[in-house]
């Protein structure tokens, strides 16, 4: 959805709608959308600066990073962004500290679909877990540890050799 910066009303523009994305659009292609991404956004223009403030909700399905079981992840994130015209970016030789948090629009347009997709990708956890207490799978037989203990013997490293192991690792 393209927003023309010059056509934003003085009181701002409110947008509430669903955005359809495919898994290929996300940073992890194994994520599945269980419902479309819902965005409630307010776009305001203050001089040449454009403020985009909103909330993003979606239901996604992830594979747990520890046990590989699929689980539902309800996403609910708020965002508050500021955009400046691209011309101002070209005028500066180096960025000020305040410019790091600012983005730029070009041709007097903002693409809300791109903004929502970016916020969606930023909200995805790096290592999704089905629960904080997930123990994962056995490294030997692959059985889920939540379902019970397997009969595999996992040898704990000899504590007296730990310092030697650290020394060898630090040398390389």
Description:
The protein has helices at residues 86-91, 112-123, 162-171; strands at residues 2-4, 13-19, 32-33, 37-46, 49-63, 70-85, 102-105, 109-111. The protein is built from three helices and eight strands, in the order ββββββαββαα. The protein has 172 residues and is an alpha+beta fold. Helices cover 16% and strands 35% of the residues. The strands form two sheets. Strands 2, 3, 4, 5, 6 and 7 form a six-stranded mixed β-sheet that branches. Strands 1-8 form a two-stranded antiparallel sheet. The mean pLDDT is 83. It has two domains: 2-134, no CATH class; 135-172, no CATH class.
What is the structure about, briefly put?
With 172 residues, the protein is an alpha+beta fold. It folds into 2 domains: 2-134, no CATH class; 135-172, no CATH class. It is 16% helix and 35% strand.
What do the pLDDT scores average to? 83
Q: Please describe the biggest sheet, giving its number of strands, its sense, and whether it closes into a barrel.
A: 6 strands, mixed
Compute the number of helices: 3
Total strand segments? 8
What is the N-to-C order of secondary-structure elements (H for helix, E for strand)? EEEEEEHEEHH
Give the SSE map.
Elements: E1 2-4, E2 13-19, E3 32-33, E4 37-46, E5 49-63, E6 70-85, H1 86-91, E7 102-105, E8 109-111, H2 112-123, H3 162-171
Which labels suit this protein?
single chain, 172 residues, alpha+beta, 2 domains, six-stranded mixed beta sheet, two-stranded antiparallel sheet, 3 helices
